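Structure, all two chains, one model.
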Amino acid sequence: MEALVNQLPIGLAIGAVLLLAALGLNFTFGQMGVINMAHGELIMVGAYTAYVLHAWVGINPAYSLLAALPTAFAVTGTLGWLLETTLIRHFYGRPLDTLLLTFGIGMILQQAARDIFGAPNVDVPAPTWLTGGITLPGDIRIHYSRLFILALAITCVIAIAHYLNRSRQGRRMRAVIHNRDLAAVSGINTRTVDATTFFIGSGLAGIAGVALTLIGPTGPTLGTNYIVDAFLVVVVGGLGRLSGTVLAAFALGILNATVEAWADASLAKLIVFTAIVAFLQARPQGLFTVKTRALT
Amino acid sequence: MTTPTDHHPTLQITGLNAGYGRAHVLFDIDLTIHPGTVACIMGRNGVGKTTLLNTIAGLITPTTGTIHLNGTDITRTPPHTRIRNGIGYAPQGHETFAPLTVADNLHVAHQAAKRGGPDPIGTALAHFPRLTPLLDRRAGLLSGGQAQQLAIARALVTNPDLLILDEPTEGIQPNIVTEIENAITDIAAQGTTILLVEQYLDVALRCADTVTVIDGGRITHTGPKDDLTEEAAHTLLAI
């Protein structure tokens, strides 16, 4: 129990990274059911956007992070919107074809990153106001960058919840996701909603990418390291359930941190995966589902 | 946007053939519905009634034939455009947006259709007062009768010229069937043209001005409801 308490702050920090990586997938996979294997590469594009603003455009590191967040959202959102309207749209209802298509898109994006930025990793310096950290009881040190990521993740969750529940577009999105044909015969342009959903989901991947530059180097395979965990978070949370995604991200983060405190990384991964498999055997629908009177 | 006129029927279907891939369901359908009337389509299960309504609403693309709404050809327009042009559709099975509240179900249709009046909630509750205490409840938690009333109200708040109702009394308790019947009569009295698919002959005869019978994907009878004698109903509807 003491180990769990000690690892809690680290687990929350890991969970925040997982949450940011999974929030976009909550839209494209959780809400729309598109197995978007290129989501990791959209995270990577977001990270390189931060690099471009710093190294190529020359924005002062003190401000480049804040400039990178909306820019990466716009860049990866537009990229996702283009992919949805030109390619992915034609594969709806064909999940295996979609998986292969988006896997191929991911490979192309990775190679494009190698061609443009080179194969070696690059660094995006963190702003000076994020250097240092706080030391908690038990001699646990949390970097300000991790706290920033936690705050960013919470801000994104609040913004998404507000969008889905309070805005016209959010209500339309939920209507289309629940019943596409009924939405269409209610006057909703479902194609526009699909494209918007993909734009937001991809844009959130870009924000995750910027956040990841704070905790490690940026390379063409950056997103690949997070894509499996991001899918796990969305599945464990319950498809399309924002509250489930949040809870699952932090639960997996804390589980990871706790297990890694006494096991090496590979064994920890094995234990976490085994726990997830066991959980999904017992509760295949994930943590949260929409309760209705219907049997399905 | 189409507008209702005295010169054009609200709905005119000519030579319509439709189906699902190789399964040909509707054959050479010709149907005209005039403004302000209630037209009822009857027929046994599986004869193509819902397929016809889904084709009118744009969910199924016909292989041949044309559909005109207020004189405008809508045969190839997508469903959301047809709703914005004046069709309101409550599909079979009291379909609602289960994760949304009752109020949000009404708002989402009203805002998307871009043609409703200023007060969609007031419009809905005027016809279905039973929904008043349920506005903040998620639609997925409503009973069948409540959900059916919401489904009709959701179609109604788009201020349609043609309101299409697919078996609105199916599986509903008798007192709510009466409420739905009364609502249909009131909506028609306000000038909205209604296309109704109904299994119950007595409901159809109370609500409708004309009755059309479909059998095997073809129209086998159409005319004023008074033409549909009990004997003819037995023959045409196999009841």
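The beta strands of chain A are 133-136, 140-143.
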